[in-house]
Amino acid sequence: MSSVAIENLDIRYGSVHVVKSLDLEIKDGEFLVLLGPSGCGKSTLLNAIGGLTDVSGGKIHFNDKDVTWVDPKDRGIGMVFQSYALYPTMSVERNMSFGLKIAGVPKAEIEKKVKWAAELLQITHLLDRKPSALSGGQRQRVAIGRALVRDADIFLFDEPLSNLDAKLRAELRLEIKKLHKALGSTMIYVTHDQIEALTLADRIAVMKDGIIQQLDTPLNVYNKPANEFVGTFLGSPAMNKIAGAFATENGGIAFKSGNFSLDVSAYPFVEPVQDGQKATLGLRPEHLRLAHAGEAAWSGTVSLVEPMGSDILAWSDFDGITLSHRLSQEEHCDVGEPVSVTADVKKASFFEENTGARL
Question: Which portions of this protein are annotated as coiled-coil regions (predicted)?
């Protein structure tokens, strides 16, 4: 097994600074997901770890070995890409074994490795087929199997499921999760899909503009985003945002935006907030609920209803502020109906106006 340590890594393409003084430690046997929008540098970082991209500065270590300038073939890695990159004229068995044959691995050992990987990925019955006779999910399993037979300590996945439909993505997410549990290998996985990140990762590194914005467990990244970008990037539908300011009120403190007011006296701020301090309130739809009789609530009008299967997503207007909120299947509202909602303030997020940092 291997750990990965990245120190002060810089990657430039001419005047474009893609990865900026990045430090990252990946534990032995960890499943780390690099998550972010297109162009954030996540795939470039993964390619640098794999040796496919030259770095402009910094170091990459596997365990205690400096591999910054080591050839990809000598790094002991297995890579799975968005494109299956299978040889169309070769059978599944030959696609999986070809690299080992080139490396001069004995035939008996090759057969043993291919059989093991095929059984693990449940593709034994496909070994004689060619890629054209396989579904997308089967082709990606073959691509994963080709990486597995290398006996790698570190596996790199670059958006391997993005070409598949929703059902296949869900199935292969489960297979990859099982694979990690079975192998115990270090896995680094690039995606822009937050569902993949939240379901697969031990830790998530959220990236923007070549910088890691937050590195934490999926629950902490989702529930306690380090800044406004992380809070709004994760979540579907996106986190509700309300710009406003804090105000002292009746011996406590409230967050106000026009006629909108939320008592935040019980909120666990990192540092005390000041009267008049501007901020952005972030509330996820599931942290809003229909108010009971007698509760302090915001009154509005339902403007859109979206049935989601397990629950219902409603969009309602509260004096010019539109908020999305979830309803159970038993709760019902129609467009144009009045609605009263309340929020779980302890699950809210507040972000500083200028920097976007969590308060």
Answer: none
Which of 305, 335, 341 has the alpha carbon at shortest distance from 321?
341
Query: Beta partners for 321?
Result: 318
Instruction: Check whether 99 has a pLDDT greater than 90.
Output: no
Q: Give tens-digit pLDDT for 144-187.
A: 888 888 878 899 999 888 877 888 788 888 888 988 998 889 99
Domains in the chain: ranges and CATH = 4-227 (3.40.50.300), 240-352 (2.40.50.140)
Assigned token pair, 216: 């934490």
Place of tokens 């299956």: 84
Q: In this predicted structure, what is the pLDDT of residue 211? A: 97
* Rounded distance between C-alpha atoms, residue 265 and residue 222, angstroms: 23
Closest CA to 212 of 31, 27, 55, 20: 20
Query: pLDDT tens digit string along 229-251?
Result: 999 999 888 899 999 999 998 88
User: For 90-94, what is the mean pLDDT?
Assistant: 92
Cite the DSSP H helix spans in 51-106.
Answer: 92-102
Helix, strand or coil for residue 183?
helix
**296: number of Cβ within 10 Å:** 11
3-state DSSP helix/strand/coil percent for the chain, to nearest 5? 30, 35, 35
- What tokens does 76 get? 């002991």
- pLDDT above 90 coverage of the chain, percent: 56
Which residue type is seen at 285?
A: P
Average pLDDT over residues 70-83: 86
Dihedral, CA of residue 326, residue 328, residue 330 and residue 334, to nearest 10: 20
Question: CB of 31 within 8 A of CB of 187?
Answer: yes
Q: How far apart are CA 27 and CA 322, in angstroms?
A: 42
Smallest CA-to-CA distance from 201 within 220, 225, 224 is with 220
What pTM does this model have? Answer: 0.90
